[in-house]
Amino acid sequence: MDIGIDKIGFYTPKNYIDIVDLAKARNQDPDKFTIGIGQEKQAVPMPYEDAVTMAAEAASQVLDDTNKSDIGLLIVGTESSVDESKASALFLTDLLGLPADVRAFEIKEACYGATAGLQTARDYIAANPDKKALVIASDIARYGLNTPGEVTQGAGAVAMLLSADPRILKLENKSTFMSRNVGDFWRPTFSKTAFARGKYSNQIYIEFFSTLWEQFQEKYDVTAADFKAMLFHIPYTKMGSKAMKILEGNIDEAKLSELKASYQESIKFGKVVGNLYTGSLYLSLLSYLLNANIDSNEEILLFSYGSGSMGELFSGKIQPGFKDAIDIKTIENILQNRNKINISEYEEIFGQGLENGQKTDVKAITSTYYLSEIKENERIYQSHN
Prior knowledge:
Strand order of the largest sheet: 5-4-6-7-1-8-13-12-11
CATH superfamily of the largest domain: Thiolase/Chalcone synthase
Family: Belongs to the thiolase-like superfamily. HMG-CoA synthase family.
Protein name: Hydroxymethylglutaryl-CoA synthase
Helix content: 25-40%
CATH class of the largest domain: Alpha Beta
Order of helices and strands: EEHHEHEHEHEEEEEHEHHHHEEHEHEE
Largest sheet: 9 strands, mixed
Number of strands: 16
Radius of gyration: 20 Å
GO molecular function, one term: hydroxymethylglutaryl-CoA synthase activity
Shape: globular
CATH topology of the largest domain: Peroxisomal Thiolase, Chain A, domain 1
Keywords: Acyltransferase, Transferase
Strand content: 25-35%
InterPro entries: HMG_CoA_synt_C_dom, HMG_CoA_synth_N, HMG_CoA_synthase_prok, Thiolase-like
């Protein structure tokens, strides 16, 4: 039985900053950010937007009255959880109007969480072929103002509906994975911003990819020639290209050029959105699907990495007619109809947040789903639907 991604949706906040503007405000050479890091724009969420609201926005693109009743599993991969006890997935069952007989929970392991959800969902459908699973990656990447990681911030969500006989990507049940206790990135419960050892994290990321790629080749008797593209977790778009350097001198030059060209198609969306943490790999997938010249039944390799650390390399086959299952117009509108703000506005928004007892000014809301108030320390969500 074929199992995989049947539909995919995406959301990012309407406000963004230009990375050149950020570089100038921080007295940095713009080339350091645009060429060295590989970013152009960065999404800026409003105080009424969080992992729950963005997940709902993305999920609404893949749900309708005909498939909601088929969903038996809802998993949210996030490291931007809004509650230390209650899963963000439970807020979504209400916002999205899902049936009560659904398993709904949240997975946290840095940027790997959504992949853990994807693999769990695959196993669920294998045991329940008549059901569907909704897996959502939703995150706000925050490092703080005027910090080394500021240029790699971002926000957004990617929602994936998994089923038997998928129309977008068949998961091939081939993977290699590894876990190590590594101190490259962390966010203590008291902090709203992350801590990172940037160069060390890059080193571990590359080591994980190198090890897992070697294991994958041996385990499944494949080479780079078997894949049309290699997609990566990209907190910033130059990170995947650093990992690809291990291929240099080890594979045919023509094939390497092909993979590098495919990679450029996969980072187009990431360049203008920024870091999605758990969603970065799947934004890469979406960018590749909508920008590359794809062959029928094309086989691709996906590298998922979550600091701390967990990594997985797995493969999938793109299905014929996959674009018919994607709401391309909506995704294009989300990316094209955004509002550029200046750095002062961004800094003001960055410091804002809803406190206990406060309500959101409904007149200022530009999204469908929003945090309406915090009442008795409980987050209350609403929608304009």
